[in-house]
Amino acid sequence: MGNQFGAEIKNKSSNKNLSTKTKNILNALSDVDVGAIIEMALSDHTPFSDIQLQYGLKENQVKELMRKNLKKGSYRSWRKRVKSFSDRREFYK
To answer: Fewer CB in 10 Å around end: N or C, the chain?
Structure first.
């Protein structure tokens, strides 16, 4: 299933390698919240700090959420784009 950004979203999978705190936070999120966070993270206009203010997720937790919910290629493309913005993120996101 894709979204408006063309990223492929996979079905929820187990969170075996996550910390207990991150697992608890991610498990507490509804499917609607997860979708909204993914959409915010995919947007080049939303900084991680806005996601943290609204949902309480730190940047590394958003990355884990994205890794667990996007297909491998979509996640890699997103990370590549986020990395390219990292130096300029304060100005663009």
So the answer is: N
